[in-house]
Amino acid sequence: MSEREQSVAQRAAANQEKSPVTRVFSGMQPSGELHLGNWLGALKNWVAMQDRYPCIFSVVDLHALTQTSDPDEMKARIRDMAMGWLAAGIDPEKCTVFVQSTVPEHAELSWVLTTLTPMGLLERMTQFKDKARSQAENVNVGLFSYPVLQAADITIYRADGVPVGEDQVQHVEFTRDLVRKFNLKYGKVFPEPRALLTSSPRVMGVDGDRKMSKSLGNHIGLNDSADVLWKKLAPAKTDVRRVRRTDPGVPEECNIYKYHGFFSTADERAWAAEGCRSAGIGCRQCKEVVAKNINAVLEPMRERRAGLEAHPGRVDEILHEGTKKLLPLARETMGRVRDAMGIPNRGRYGIGEDR
Ligand code: SF4
User: Fold this and answer.
1) By the 8 A CB rule, do 223 and 301 touch?
2) Model confidence over 129-169: pLDDT tens digits?
3) Is 291's C-beta closer than 6 angstroms to any atom of ligand 1?
4) What is the pLDDT of residues 287-312, one digit of tens each?
5) Which long-range contacts (CB under 8 A, 24 or more apart) does 18-23 make?
6) Between 26 and 345, whose confidence is greater?
7) Quick check: CB of 236 below 6 Å from ligand 1?
8) How confident is residue 48, by pLDDT bands cut at 50, 70 and 90?
9) Most informative mutation of 233, 244, 256 for ligand 1 (most atoms within 8 A of CB)
């Protein structure tokens, strides 16, 4: 971690000790089938968080437009992502789930915040550089101003907590900068959100070489059956030293051992490490234990998903309820923003209630 990243992470940790968090916001792009990387990197934290805070979770389709342009695919992915969240344990009785574009105030506030954002600040965001490299044929303005829309996603609900891994703290800091700027210039409208640091491990795919991703085809889906899971795990890469069953290995250099770290008990991890170093166990045996433990996590998700698929209207109802619940809050925030900035409220012209 660089010095700057370290200081950012320290500040975020210090923030966590301040006043209690009253509203949490987080979102995920509908970018395809959910997999173990999504579970360990975000969803598992969300499921735990919904019991601690009032949480808003958004399928951020406006963000996805910077990458996807197929309307049918977009529609299917939005629904599939919401279903995947619910199957994973996101409970609409405990939190609010909705689709970003159904609350138009996100885009409206994003424009307002754009007018306060120096170009230089956006140019420094590392995510833009990475994305611009990965989709060189489509480096659009939305991709560049993406962090401003992220800031609007948080501030439109005056959320004060944002769960992030350490590599995402920069985005929360960016939002805090914009909030301070707005409040200083126009009067206090927004609370300063803070990063709620969560464990967000880098989960490698079954190829052992690259981060787990649906597009790379190296993923284990949250909806994979036990058979499909084993078909992916059985040929998965292990430590290259273990050519024959009798060759000892180095577990720390094996991706399967990392999966043990995520899913197995301390005893099972010790068994795998010792058995690997002494060649006392084979890789197949080792993988069978990982598969058993991953299946134990996925089985309740498979069951919940089957229940949702049997009642296809239920997901739409939940998303609709989420939007209905959030619209008044978003409108109220925009009313305050408009008042503070001296631009008219729509209610003044009889075309909507901002306040
Ligand atoms: S025994 Fe387990 S940890 Fe060792 S190389 Fe094989 S799969 Fe990896």
Assistant:
1) yes
2) 877 787 878 888 888 899 999 999 999 999 999 999 888 89
3) no
4) 999 999 999 999 999 999 999 999 98
5) 18/194, 21/53, 21/160, 21/161, 21/194, 21/196, 22/53, 22/54, 22/160, 22/161, 23/53, 23/54, 23/55, 23/56, 23/157, 23/158, 23/159, 23/160, 23/161
6) 26
7) no
8) very high
9) 256
258: CA distance to ligand 1 center in Å? Answer: 10
**Per-residue model confidence as pLDDT tens digits over 199-246:** 889 999 999 999 999 889 999 999 999 999 999 999 999 999 999 999
Fold match between 3-203+312-349 and 226-310? no
Q: Are 54 and 90 in contact (CB under 8 A)?
A: no
Any atom of ligand 1 within 6 Å of the Cβ of 283: yes
pLDDT at 168: 86
Domain spans, the chain: 3-203+312-349, 226-310
**Which numeric CATH code is attached to 3-203+312-349?**
3.40.50.620
Task: Select the CATH number that applies to the domain covering 226-310 from these four: 3.30.70.100, 3.40.50.1110, 3.40.50.150, 1.10.240.10.
Answer: 1.10.240.10
Residues annotated as part of the active site: 131, 211, 214
Q: Helix/strand/coil (H, E, C) string of 107-167?
A: HHHHHHHHCCCCHHHHHCCHHHHHHHHHCHHHCCHHHHCHHHHHHHHHHCCCCCEEEECHH
Residue 193 gets which letter from DSSP? P
